[in-house]
Amino acid sequence: MKRMSFAVSLFTFLFAVSAYSQNGVTTRYWDACKPSCGWTSNASGSPNGVCKSCNITGGVESSNDSRSACENGPAFTCMKQAPWAVDDNMSYGFVANNKVGCGKCVEFTFTNTTISGKKMTVMVSNFGNLGGDAHFDIMIPGGGVGDFDALTRQIQQNGGSSADMGVRYGGFRAKCGADAACIRKMCDAAFGTAALADLKAGCYWYIDWFKMADNPNVSYKEVTCPQALVDKYKGNFNSTPNPPPNTTYTLTVNRNPTNGGTTTPASSQSNINGGSQVNISATAASGYTFTNWTVSGSGTIANANNASTTVTVNGNITVTANFNNSANPPVPVKGDTIKVEAENFSSKSGDNIKVEDGAIGWIENGNSTTYKVNVGKAGTATMLFRIATEVQSNFSVEVNGTNVGRISQGSTGGWGTFITVQLSNAVTLRAGENTITLKFESAVNVDYFLLIGDIKGGTSVRQPGVKAVSERSQVTLKANVRGFNALLPANHGFTSYSVIDLQGREVRSGRIGESATGLSVSGLKHSVVFLRLEGKGRTPLSLKAVTY
Q: Fewer beta carbons below 10 Å: N end or C end of the chain?
């Protein structure tokens, strides 16, 4: 995120603490630069004074007006200002925002993604080149350095083994996707030394509490700042933070499937002090192999791929030992076979769904895909799905408007490790066209599904002219000053474009010629926008664009 790292006048927004919620958008970053609210002149309207900066090793800077590390000065963001969990449903942290004002707080209620319903109280320590008054840039270690990067120097000075900060805008999540093991590995590599422990804890928090949510939307209202946030804002890191309501927690241990093996502890333990480490182990039953551990709640696992490891309990937490049935794959089925590629949907719900490497992914709860399948003869069929996941994945199946069953699958070993799973119920198909809908309840990657039975063959069809689009492989965006260039593939089929800001307002639009190989957008006032491409017979395509 581009910020004002020099002393400037900050217009103070005077308004009372509001009981009314408004809607907002979030992004994430951690550049380690001195916060904008760290200059005396910028924090003149702050009810809590100046946000303290720290030196490269984490000690509090004595001067409020030291030069920023992003200008080769000594002042960095304090590592102890990384976000942390208060309990399963509340966290504290810091943000950049242009309206609320330095030293003030808002309470988020997240309204979508994997953390919908959770809350977070954040304190404004920064402002800068954001996409509107309701845009909040959450400070998360590993969230991307944005326009400036003092973090790499800080990591190198403190013994970190990796300077890989992931994607400049989006960080580790943008590089790994929703792959917890990949993000955790990057957290360990970058922040693995004792001197960087606070950054590592904040990076783990993004995995375990924030559930790797990708820029969730929020409703927000201004609130009185908790003392724990005020202390960190003022650099009082030795003070006692607000204690959470519960000081002891419950660890629940599950098995997936339940007959896949045993665990120690066998079920649950209660009255565990926050911050304690508990030994856990899993032993696979005959015919099964241990895959990994997955986490729900507040805490971290030392090594999710080891059958014997430790879990740090920071709140009520559930860990699941996932097993794979290596001896009993789906029973071979005989009959006519129709193969339906997952990307050959006739319609979908969820702009986030992407086609990559011949499969669909980036799926979220509430998304769906619908397919049209022609069958030569009415009859019953068995459905087999080729899927991959690293979490507990669930989706239901509808055939011609009737729910016919549900797939529930634990981790397969990774987002690229595909296995075949079978719907427990046979499905009834009619001669001619059938409509099949997959309704997703969680993240999963789907390669294809099979219909096998006495159905005299058939084919999968799409609505005329509709094409599934791979966002990452079809269109390339290159940022420039106050704009971007979009490179289009041959035979792209797009006829128009629009540029939408983070408030949902159209700020640019135009036509695209049939032979155009790209388009250029300039003169934008916002650093983050969305490019929407449309064309007859094409699924509308939306991409996030960042300028500088």
A: C
